[in-house]
Design goal:
By secondary structure, the protein is mainly alpha-helical. The protein has five helices and two strands, in the order αααβααβ. It has a two-stranded parallel sheet. The chain starts with a helix and ends in a 9-residue tail after the last strand.
């Protein structure tokens, strides 16, 4: 996925009111960036340019946080656009956890941005 194809697919999921699909889109983009950063000579330059907004700051903020984290974890400087932070806090609902438990189970690097998602929900196969 490119930043622009990610944004477009994410925007479609948002328009349909499908938060589950939107979450899959951002985690898939994160996973692809992780793979690119791990490979020798993989082209990550496309992710240096900020994708246009989805129109939903919570999703823009989550995408920025995930991409920034992957760059930092790989020892690279995150793209400048990934410093974006949503104005309002956001808790991604979880069927098994209440809001307090979700906040407690959120990785610190994500909670610092006011985004609360249980660590286990961030794991992909």
């Amino acid at each position: 996925m490119t930043p622009q194809s990610t944004r477009q697919t994410l925007k479609e999921a948002i328009a349909q009111g499908d938060d589950r699909w939107a979450f899959k889109v951002v985690t898939q983009a994160r996973d692809q960036v992780r793979a690119m950063l791990a490979g020798p000579g993989e082209p990550v330059a496309a992710w240096e340019t900020r994708p246009s907004s989805t129109g939903e700051e919570r999703w823009d903020g989550l995408l920025a946080a995930l991409i920034a984290h992957e760059f930092a974890e790989s020892g690279r400087t995150p793209p400048a656009w990934t410093a974006f932070r949503a104005v309002h806090e956001w808790v991604l609902p979880n069927l098994l956890l209440d809001e307090t438990a979700i906040r407690e189970a959120t990785p610190e690097w994500l909670a610092e941005r006011g985004i609360y998602i249980a660590r286990r929900d961030l794991i992909t196969a």
